[in-house]
Amino acid sequence: MPAYDVFFYGALFFLGGIAGASLGLRSSLLYIAAFGIAVFLLLWHLKKRSRFLWYTGLSLLFLVGAIYYTGFTGGDVRKNIVPGEFTFEGVVEEDPEIKDAFQSLVVKVRSGTLRDSRLLITTDRYPSFRYGDVLRISGTIGRPDSDSFDRYLKKERIDGSIRFPELSRVAEHQGSPLKSFLFSVRHSVLESFGELLPQNKAAFLGGLVLGDRSGFSKEFTSAMQGSGTTHLVALSGYNISIIVLAAMSVLVFFMKRNIAAALTCCLVAGFVVMTGIEASVVRAAVMGVLILIAKERGRLFDVRNVIVCAGLVMVLLNPRILVFDVGFGLSFLALLGIVYLKPAIQKRWRTFENPGFLSWRENILTTSAAQCMVLPLLVGSFGSFSPLSLFSNILILECVPLTMAFGFAVGGVAFLSHYAALALSWFVLPLLYFETGVITFFGKVGFLLEIPFHWSFAVPYYAAIGWFIWKMNKRERELKRA
Questions:
Q1: What is the pLDDT of residues 33-83, one digit of tens each?
Q2: What digits encode the pLDDT tens for the residues 166-175?
Q3: What is residue 126's DSSP assignment?
Q4: Are 368 and 390 in contact (CB under 8 A)?
Q5: Same domain, 48 and 95
Q6: Helix, strand, or coil here: 451?
Q7: Statement: the pTM of the whole predicted model exceeds 0.85
Q8: Does residue 90 sit in helix, strand or coil?
Q9: What is the dihedral of CA 74, 31, 459, 346, to 10 degrees?
């Protein structure tokens, strides 16, 4: 078996073991893996064919994945905090998340009976707090009010939550200097958008470029949900590609390519930290770095293995995200739809090979392929989806890459010259007016369609998609041989 296949199938079986353990099937996994190992060893003994040894190893990796998940979560059990009144000091560990009139803080306790616990604090938007602030907090730690919230806390390794406690700032700048610098860059870029553009246009551009939603009004958030365009502010591969392209284009003039590539990878890592380490941007960053390394070393790369490697890296760092992080699933499923389902549809209906005026056919195909892949997870997690999202995305997607490129340019130039950034903002403003106008229009006329759903429906659904992709690829190979 070629090395790239060994890695691909080995990673899939390992991830399968983690998924099974996440769903509480640990004892069943043990029996399945033991049965598979016994059967393949017996076949190898009888047939003397090496492939049965590979199958034995794959079955063993299935079990290793389950053991890894159990060991990881067993050593990371949330502290047994009895709900009640507490007073303590803690440091803000992440950049606060702002939603409407509230802000959420992840605080690590510094002393007392709760020492080293991580707590989620929900408080009023003002006064505002920042990463590295040391706070004195008095409030009640309560139990999670739903299973989904409890899973979220587990995934984020948070031990408890407090709503609207008494807060006072004791000290500042007690965090990592590097993270403080990256967050300050993020805030400066968002502030420059706010100074140069109208409020809702600046907020949308901040969402496209940095994944920030703090400036979204309730009305605009609702319009994005109704129009099915919320995914636009989930950072993706295009953000990473702009950083890689811009950094490499500049750095190669001053240093060797291998050093420029290494610095570019560092810039990508900094961007991931600066934007909050969202699943979609981590996936895109890992893939972007792997592809950059492969190109610089003159190696061929298989997109299939790059996707699996990105998922494997993320799951190794936090196994809970494989099942309990909806963003992780949506990001990878949408990518799989674009990489595999989209070409299959093009092979079935040749009319989509021509992108059309302003790439409208290309946008239809890309959006449809991604939506088809994420539909079960979307409906299963949220209970609804927007049937008009296809039309709104067709109109917007052609403009989004150019808008993001201008957004990065405005944010970067603003550090050098306010007036130069202002001049650049005039170019991006018409695009923002068009995009927000489309979102607002479809948000008003659109609606969320609720569909009764059970997770067992996903099995035949994805089986049918897999069969369709296999069938189209097989037909393409037969046509080439003919």
A1: 777 777 777 777 677 777 777 778 777 888 888 888 887 766 444 555 667
A2: 999 999 888 8
A3: S
A4: yes
A5: no
A6: coil
A7: no
A8: strand
A9: 90
